[in-house]
Structures are given as C-alpha cells and as structure tokens.
C-alpha cells in the first residue's frame, strides 16, 4: 500500500482509522509470543533469530494476531540489523535479504488470512525498527543511556541502510518502536527526511515512570520531534506498564494532533542483565482491555495493541472492547435516525 497513488501522508492514518471504524487494533507481544511457542530467543538477534531458524513460527504468530482481530501486524525485524546479522557470519546481501524476509512473511500471513475471509478487514504491515540499544542487547533500550560517544550522526549511520531496505520492502509503514531517548528520535526524523523515505512511520517511546521516556528525556520533547517530522503519521508509547499510559497520552496530546498509538506491555519489567521478565502487576487481559481502553480513548489515543508478554488473548479482548464501542455508536446512530423518522 504505502503512499503510492499520491496519497497524502497526513491522511494516511485517518483514512485507515475511518476504514477500521474509528479505532484500530494492533498486534501484541511478538518476541515473547514466539517464546511461548517454544523459540529460544536468548540471542543478540532476539526475535530476528526466528527469521533464520523458524520462519514458519513467525508466520504462525502473525496469523494468530490476525485471527485475534489485529488491523496492524508488526514485523519480526525489531532486532534485525545488518550489523547483527554480519556478526553472525552472514554477508551483507544475506543480511539485507533477511530484513526483507521479515516483511515478506508478514505480507504472506496477511494473504493467507485474507484468503480465509469473505470480507477484507483493513490490515497494515508495519516494519519494525528497534533502537540502537536493542541491537546492543545489553538492556540500554530500557535505560536510553548510550554514553557521550553516541551522537545523532552515529545513530543515523547505524540505522540508515536498514531503514532504506525496510522502506522499499512492500511494508505499509515503519514502526520505530521502544525509542528510549531524544537523540534517537531526532536521528529517525532526520533520516526519514534526508533519505526521502516515502512510506509513513510512527514513533513510539517507552517510559518507566509515566512522565519521561526511559532516558529521562521529556516525553513532550520526544513527541514534538515526531510531530514536526512530516513522514510521521502517529506518535505513541509501547513496552510500558499500562498504569503509566494515561498520563503519557495526555502529555503527548498537548504537543501533537497526530493520531496516538498505544501498546503497553504486561506490566512486568525486563531485566537486561539476567534477560528475565520480573514482577507482574497482575494485569489480566479482560481487565486490561475493559478498564483502560475507554480512558485512553478519552485522553486521545486511537490505535491500541500490546507489547511484551501480551498475547493473542489480550488482542482479542481489545478488539472486542473496541468493536462493542463501534457497534454502540452505530446503534446510537440507528436510534437517532429512527427517532427522526418518527
Ligand atoms: C522490546 S519491545 C518489542 C517490540 C516488538 N514489536 C515485539 O513485540 O517483539
Ligand atoms: Zn515490548
């Protein structure tokens, strides 16, 4: 899909949301779902390891999320980088092919899903780009602390080729996920501009206090960088406990009128050193969807999904809550028109 046919970036998400009935459902945790299916992701490539070892599982998880009601599926490229594949002994060409493969599998899953259905629910494929910290695989995607030696230029050079490849892979948009600091947001924005990337993107940040992004940079500053980049069609928060989301949505809404995307994790915290998820806030799928979605919608969010340790059940619950709301809006309309007729 992309922006072909002269479609304006500014209307990309609003047109999509309209087709979805006002609100869109994203998928849920991807890497953690691969693990639930038995994949061993204790590897610097994390979920991208499955692009090599078990592409069928990647397709399976995409299909599970489509079955659960997702309107956006996010590729397994979060931790897929040319540098990371090269470190594993792949050639540059092989590394690029693996990046493309992440998108091809998601597109294939959408085709399989469409073939099963009578009607075509709108589904976008978002090519995931994880942060430099995710590539480092040392927990710095949750500290946002890259040290003084890492500059906006370093980050642009790190991401450049990968972003170019994903932009030309057939994906509908790029999802810059779990962005831990301001310099990386700046690097993404400058890269999109300099490279003339012609598919839209969303910028999504993570927070561990509900006020700032994980580095301590202000969410308002980060969201403002996203707001001023013309290729950015949505701004939001992912991989953050749901109890922090409401405040963050309100802060983002103050600095942008772009659609807001929200996909919290299960509320557990990832310990980058032990590579374990610890402590659960006890968020249960049904509760998670029922209680919070309404509040986040009121605060201004319009795309909802889940991040790490959420599952197709979470997405099914979100999808149900949103479609109940859509149908109640439709019922109200129907009542209104029958009253007018009387
Ligand atoms: C650490 S956040 C990971 C985001 C990625 N889309 C996933 O669900 O695997
Ligand atoms: Zn996550």
UniProtKB/TrEMBL annotation:
Domain Hcy-binding, chain residue ranges per copy: 12-322
Cofactor binding: number and manner: Binds 1 zinc ion per subunit.
Residues given in the record as Zn(2+) binding sites: 239, 307-308
Alphabetical UniProt keywords: Metal-binding, Methyltransferase, Transferase, Zinc
SUPFAM superfamilies found in the cross-reference section: Homocysteine S-methyltransferase
Name of the featured protein: Homocysteine S-methyltransferase 3
Entry superkingdom: Eukaryota
Cofactor: Zn(2+)
Cited InterPro entries: BHMT-like, HCY_dom, HCY_dom_sf, Hcy_S-methyltransferase
NCBIfam families the record matches: PRK09485.1 (NF007020)
Organismal lineage: Eukaryota, Viridiplantae, Streptophyta, Embryophyta, Tracheophyta
GO biological process terms, semicolon-separated: methionine biosynthetic process; methylation; S-methylmethionine cycle
GO MF annotations in UniProt: S-adenosylmethionine-homocysteine S-methyltransferase activity; zinc ion binding
Keyword Transferase: yes
UniProt xrefs under Gene3D superfamilies: Homocysteine-binding-like domain (3.20.20.330)
């Amino acid at each position: 899909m992309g922006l072909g046919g002269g479609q304006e970036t500014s209307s990309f998400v609003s047109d999509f949301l309209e087709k979805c009935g006002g609100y869109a459902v994203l998928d849920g945790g991807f890497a953690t779902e691969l693990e639930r299916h038995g994949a061993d992701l204790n590897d610097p490539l994390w979920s991208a390891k499955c692009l090599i070892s078990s592409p069928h599982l990647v397709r399976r998880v995409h299909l599970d999320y489509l079955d659960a009601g997702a309107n956006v599926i996010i590729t397994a490229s979060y931790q897929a980088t040319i540098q990371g594949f090269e470190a594993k002994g792949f050639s540059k060409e092989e590394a690029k092919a693996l990046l493309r493969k992440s998108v091809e599998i998601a597109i294939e899953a959408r085709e399989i899903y469409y073939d099963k259905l009578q009607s075509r629910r709108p589904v976008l494929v978002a090519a995931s780009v994880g942060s430099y910290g995710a590539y480092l695989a040392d927990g710095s995607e949750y500290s946002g602390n890259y040290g003084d030696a890492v500059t906006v230029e370093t980050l642009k050079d790190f991401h450049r080729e990968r972003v170019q490849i994903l932009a030309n892979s057939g994906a509908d948009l790029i999802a810059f996920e779990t962005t831990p600091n301001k310099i990386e947001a700046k690097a993404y924005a400058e890269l999109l501009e300099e490279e003339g990337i012609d598919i839209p993107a969303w910028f999504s940040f993570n927070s561990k206090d509900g006020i700032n992004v994980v580095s301590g940079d202000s969410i308002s500053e980060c969201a403002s960088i996203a707001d001023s980049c013309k290729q950015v069609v949505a701004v939001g928060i992912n991989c953050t406990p749901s109890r922090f989301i409401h405040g963050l949505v309100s802060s983002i809404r103050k600095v942008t009128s772009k659609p807001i995307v929200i996909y919290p994790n299960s509320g557990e915290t990832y310990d980058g050193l032990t590579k374990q998820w610890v402590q659960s806030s006890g968020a249960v799928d049904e509760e998670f969807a029922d209680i919070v979605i309404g509040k986040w919608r009121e605060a201004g969010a319009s795309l909802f999904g889940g991040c790490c340790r959420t599952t197709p059940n979470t997405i099914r619950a979100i999808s149900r809550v949103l479609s109940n709301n859509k149908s109640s809006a439709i019922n109200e309309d129907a009542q209104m028109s029958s009253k007018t007729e009387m």
